[in-house]
Every structure is written in C-alpha cells, then in structure tokens.
Design goal:
Layout lengths: L15 H19 L1 H12 L10 H13 L11 H22 L7 H4 L1 H18 L1 H5 L2 H9 L2 H10 L4 H20 L3 H25 L11 H20 L21 H14 L11 E2 L15 E9 L2 H5 L4 E9 L14 E9 L3 H5 L12 E2 L3 E6 L2 E10 L4 E12 L2 E10 L15 H14 L14 H17 L2
Parallel strand pairs: 1-8
Antiparallel strand pairs: 2-3, 3-4, 4-9, 5-7, 6-7, 7-8, 8-9
Helix pairs in contact: 1-6, 1-13, 3-8, 3-10, 4-6, 4-13, 9-10, 10-11, 10-12, 11-12
Length: 493
C-alpha cells in the first residue's frame, strides 16, 4: 500500500469539481486525438442513418449511469495502490494499441460492421481512468463498463436486424440500452434499479410509438435516437427529484469529495505516449466500391437476360431490408447457356450461372455488408480480385471462393452501378462442378456465422480466409457473360 508524502496541492486546487475536471480533461482530450480517424469514419455512418449512429448517444447514456453510481459512493475508503494502478492502467492502454495496430487490420473488409476500434476506445478510457482516478475508484463503475462493452457495434446491429432492421428497430435497441443505463443509475437497491430500468423501457417504447405515428418515412438519423435520449433524461430527473425530496444519503448533485488519488500527474507521460501511438496508427481504408453509372432502372425485378442465355430459375429474397435499408430488394436468377462452348466445358455441357441482384438506396450499407458477408461461404477462402472492363466507364471484379469441405470452387463477378436513385450491386456466380445439380452458395444472413468467422480469424489469422494460390477457371465465361449482361441492360426498355 503506497502513501503519498509529497506536499498536497493548494486548497482551491483540491476542490472536488476542479480536481475531477483536471483529471478528465487529459483523458477526454487524449481520446479525441488518439481516435480522430475513428471519429471521422463514424460521421458518415451516423449522417446516413446507419445503426452505428447510436454511438453518438452511447457516451451520454454511460455518463448518466456513471453519475448515478458516483452519487452512491459516499462510504468508500480512501485506499489505493499506485503500483497496481500503473500495471492495470498500462495494460489497458497497451490493449488499445494492440487492437488498433494488430486486430483491426485483420478485418479490412468488415471494418464498418465490427468497428473494433470502438472497443479500443473503451480500453483507452478505462486505462486512463485507472491511471488518473485509481483502480478501486474505476472498478466501482464496473456495470457501466460492462454495458458499454456488451452493446458493441456487432451485438447492436444483430439486435436491430433481429427486430426488423428498420429505423424503429434501431430506436428500440437504443431504448433497451437506456433501460440498462437507467437501472444502473438509480439502483440504490435492486428493486429501485429494476423499477428504473422498467420505467426507462416503457417511456422509450411510448416515444418510439409516437414518433412512428408522427412520421410518414424514415426520421432523421438523429431523431431515431431521440426516444432513448428523452427516456433517459425523464427517468434520471424523476429519481433525482425523488432522492432530494426524501433526503436520501448523498443526495447532492455535485461531488463533495476529492478523488482518492491525489497526485496522478506522473501518469500523464504514459497516457500521452499511448495517445500519440494510437494517433499514428492507420485504419483500413474504406472499401473501393467503384460505382459506375448504369441505365435507368427497369420496372421488372432482376436483370434482363442477354441473348444466348435462358432464365431457368427466379426467386425473391425478402430479408434484404433488414440489412440494406427499407425498400431494398434482392433477387436471384438462374440462367443457362443456350449452346455448348468448348472453352467453358470440355465434356459438352451447357454452363449454368447464378445472378444475385441487390437494389438499395443506401450505398453505405454496401460498406457494412460487403462481398461474402451474407453468403453461406463465410468459412471458405477468398482470392485477391481481378479487375476487368465490362463497358466504357464500368469495371467489375472477379475473385474465387474455395470451400474445402465441399471440394468446390466458385468464381464471382461483382459489379456496382447507380441506376437512377438506386445503387445496384450484381454478383454473377459460376461453380467448377458443371453438373446441372451443382450447388451454388446461398445468400443466408446470419450474424452468428459472421461472429464465428471473426473469432476464427482472430485465433488463426487471415490465412484461414485467404486463397493465396487461386485458379481463375471461369474468367472467360464470366467476362463474356458480364459484358453481354451490361450491354443488355442498356438495350432493355
């Protein structure tokens, strides 16, 4: 147990509000500098109404819960061990660097889906609090840290998708977060905590219903978080009034005690060093969508089949709005060549392809759920893409997916273009098994599979998801079909 024998600061400098503010200033300011790139990447998603916009509200709700706990800390003894503080706080800060420097680069394609840099932010702020306030004081707020981690980007998106995927689903998940934070904030007893959580949920649900009745379309992305913000404020103010009215212990709203750690300033050297390291670490660049300009969108679903091919199968997949926004559509067409081409099959068989066409008015969702994210081949290995020209100003990418369990290789041609107000993403798939009943990968949305693949890459590295010796067997087939497909869309009425 360490004791501080150095002269204490002047009385005015030790005032609780000033002391707490001076400790929080380097933590908050350092975090803004360290995660400047992350905050810049967060802005477009919030402005486009993405579910990740709830991260704007998350710090405010966490602050409400933390203030509630702080008002109940009137019996805490002034005990601390600075050696332990430096060990734990330093490990948390190093963990933040490891996440951004080593873990985030492993998931360049799913960066906007996972947002692991946000977890690095939690580790950074936890470590900063341990250094500036002490481990015991920071540990008192464990419910807040736990809830912030549990409501990370991937779990939040999974819950929103489970509830329907529209703006109301995002608002409802935010309200659920409010319920947890409200319960933590007012939990002088477990009954009172339960009552606060229930009240927060009820108020939020009512407000979501009123907002739904008052709007004819998708509200402003910030309005989606309005029910959660109002519910948190209403429940918090009610219990503050109840506490003051009944003169409960520690009913004052401002801190009355100086932080336990009275000389935290040497820790600023470590905090500044980690801040600089995080600031210098780059994030994966946004996915290069290469969106071309296509013809006006046709009234019929799917794409017009080019000459020399016959459509032999058609299906609408109704889950697209849950992931790609209200109004999104996904259509699967099966097409078969009218004649045999020896270069495509040596045994005289006509080739069959699958065409998946996704229409969405929210291009940012293609960053969140790119490539193979929603296909059943998430556990397979993917090659680097080849870029081909399909038409003047329109390029496509060809890559292979190897499934070693089925002993199959699928070759994909992907293209994205804007057709009027809609962004259309097209994937043409060929399989190296040329039999009529050969299996094609199915678009099967499953957040559990995404999480499992994420964990696999975490444990075994990117090599499990990369095919470094690909065989592009069907490049000629897909190039020929892709160019004919693009030309046909311009010819179709």
């Amino acid at each position: 147990m360490s004791t501080e024998t150095a002269a204490r600061a002047p009385l005015w400098f030790r005032h609780p509000i000033i002391a707490i503010t001076l400790r929080w200033a380097p933590i908050v300011g350092g975090g803004a500098i360290a995660f400047d790139a992350s905050l810049n990447r967060l802005q477009p998603s919030a402005e486009n109404g993405q579910r990740i916009g709830y991260l704007v509200l998350l710090p405010l709700l966490a602050l409400v819960a933390a203030l509630g706990i702080a008002r109940r800390r009137y019996r805490e003894l002034p005990i601390h061990d600075r050696q332990v503080d430096y060990i734990v706080g330093g490990m948390a800060l190093i963990l933040a660097v490891v996440i951004v420097g080593l873990l985030v680069p492993r998931y360049p394609d799913t960066f906007d889906l996972l947002r692991l840099d946000m977890y690095a932010g939690v580790a950074y702020y936890f470590g900063g609090c341990v250094l500036m306030f002490g481990l015991r004081a920071t540990g008192r707020f464990w419910p807040v840290w736990l809830v912030v981690v549990l409501f990370g980007p991937l779990p939040y998106r999974a819950l929103a998708v489970l509830l329907g995927g529209d703006w109301k689903a995002s608002a409802l998940v935010s309200v659920l977060f409010v319920g947890f934070c409200a319960g933590i904030a007012v939990a002088r007893t477990w009954r009172r905590g339960l009552l606060g959580a229930v009240l927060g949920l009820l108020v939020g649900l009512v407000l979501v219903g009123l907002l739904d009745l008052a709007t004819t379309g998708i509200p402003n992305p910030f309005a989606q978080q309005l029910p959660a913000a109002i519910a948190a404020a209403a429940v918090g103010l009610y219990f503050i009034w109840h506490t003051i009215r009944n003169k409960e212990p520690n009913a004052h709203l401002v801190p009355r005690r100086e932080p336990t750690v009275t000389r935290p300033w040497p820790a600023l050297i470590l905090l500044a060093a980690i801040t600089l390291a995080l600031f210098l670490l780059p994030l994966p660049p946004p996915i290069d969508q290469r969106i071309g300009t296509g013809p006006p969108l046709a009234d019929v679903p799917g794409l017009s089949v080019p000459d020399g091919w016959t459509q032999t199968g058609f299906a609408r997949l109704d889950w697209a709005p849950q992931y790609y926004g209200t109004g999104a559509t996904l259509v699967r067409q099966v097409v078969t060549a009218d004649r045999v081409v020896d270069a495509w099959d040596a045994k005289g068989r006509r080739r069959t392809l699958v065409v998946d066409t996704l229409n969405t008015d929210d291009v940012f969702t293609l960053q969140v759920y790119p490539g193979q994210t929603l296909y059943s081949t998430i556990y397979a290995r993917r090659s680097d893409p080849l870029t081909i020209e399909l038409a003047p100003g329109q390029t496509g990418r060809i890559y292979t997916i190897v499934d070693e369990n089925l002993f199959l290789t699928w070759t994909y041609l992907s293209l994205i273009w804007r057709r009027g107000a809609v962004v259309q993403s097209v994937r043409v798939i060929a399989v190296d098994n040329h039999e009529p009943d050969a299996p094609f990968p199915e678009p099967t949305p499953n957040m559990g599979s995404i999480a499992a693949q994420t964990f696999t890459i975490l444990m075994r590295g990117n090599a499990v998801a990369v095919d470094d010796k690909p065989e592009y067997k069907d490049v000629d087939l897909l190039t020929t079909f892709g160019r004919a497909l693009v030309a046909r869309q311009w010819e179709a009425p």
